[in-house]
Design brief:
single chain; alpha/beta; 6-stranded mixed sheet; 5-stranded mixed sheet; 13 helices; 48% helix
């Protein structure tokens, strides 16, 4: 009897050791093949730029290919739904934007994915410095000029934007400034930049990744930025609140990496550690800063809490905007 009990204890002990080693083994074996990072926007925007910066370093560190796959459309629903349904093995990730994980749930009566239940948060990756931009040929030399022009032509000026956050910013800006403008939605930052460059739209709100080269070349003009963080690429651009008194609060686009919900925690932790390492590199930070992307990382648990916090602060703004997509 005692021998049987001893054998049982040895078996249970071995089983416990095996279970404790399983996560470590899964983490050590990962990745054994190429990783795909899905970007729910066309190439050229902030999420695409950041995904490619991360993918390049991740591939070198892991010794496996990292493919950035653009799946744009439907306010990020197409890319998000694709990743939500992917195998939870760490080989399909989503470079999510704030609208994917927060705003869409208030803008659609039914989403094809659940922003909380369908994803495993890995890490916050960046915040962008959003800019108010016009064509360089515009007679609006300042944000005050633009507001005055809009007041003189109610219902005439058009505001272009390519993300949910910037579309809401167009609406919020008009409300706070007491002007009547028309929202022209675009499908990503590259289209936004083209729209204002070709005078298809009067002004836009967007991150710098697509518009900054055109600002530097003199084709576009940045009138204001939406937060007080130093933006080294355009150090003299004033904040919208300081320039006009129109304070929209802390409005910026943020990006984060998520995986399908049941992805093993050991793999999630390994990815979080890798992204933190990549984005802490001074060279990577310099590359990101040059296009107005401020790298920010946290733990999976902290990112999950951040998403919940953001989800609590946007419903009122969405409601005031009157925006709905179905």
């Amino acid at each position: 009897m005692r021998c049987n009990q001893l054998a049982a204890l040895v078996s249970l002990s071995a089983l416990g050791i095996a279970h404790s080693l399983a996560p470590a083994a899964a983490q050590d074996a990962y990745p054994s093949r190429a990783i795909r990072i899905v970007v729910p926007f066309p190439a050229g925007g902030p999420s695409d730029v950041l995904a490619r910066i991360i993918g390049e370093r991740m591939s070198a560190d892991f010794g496996q290919g990292v493919v950035v796959e653009n799946r744009p459309g439907a306010n990020t629903l197409i890319g998000a739904q694709f990743v939500a349904k992917a195998a939870p093995d760490g080989y399909t990730l989503l470079m999510a934007i704030d609208s994917t994980l927060v705003m869409n749930q208030y803008l659609y009566s039914a989403l094809p994915y659940d922003p909380i239940k369908d994803f495993a948060p890995i890490t916050l990756a960046a915040k962008t410095t959003d800019l108010l931009v016009v064509n360089a040929a515009s007679n609006a030399k300042t944000a005050k000029d633009l507001i005055a022009k809009a007041k003189a032509q109610p219902g005439k000026l058009t505001c272009g934007a390519g993300t949910i956050t910037t579309k809401l910013t167009c609406v919020f800006f008009s409300q706070k400034a007491g002007i009547d403008t028309i929202l022209l939605p675009y499908n990503g930052s590259a289209e936004v930049a083209h729209g204002v460059l070709t005078n298809s739209v009067d002004f836009v709100f967007d991150g710098p990744s697509a518009v900054l080269p055109l600002i530097k070349s003199g084709d576009l003009r940045a009138l204001a930025k939406l937060d007080g963080r130093l933006f080294r690429a355009l150090p003299d651009v004033p904040t919208l609140a300081a320039e006009t008194g129109v304070d929209l609060g802390d409005v910026n686009v943020w990006l984060g990496l998520v995986a399908p919900r049941a992805t093993p925690p050991a793999i999630v932790d390994k990815l979080a550690g890798e992204v933190a390492k990549i984005l802490a590199d001074p060279e990577v930070r310099s590359r990101a800063d040059a296009v107005g992307i401020s790298p920010v990382t946290d733990s999976p648990a902290e990112f999950a809490a951040f998403i919940q916090h953001e989800a609590a602060r946007w419903p009122d703004i969405v409601k005031r905007s009157g925006m709905h997509f179905d």
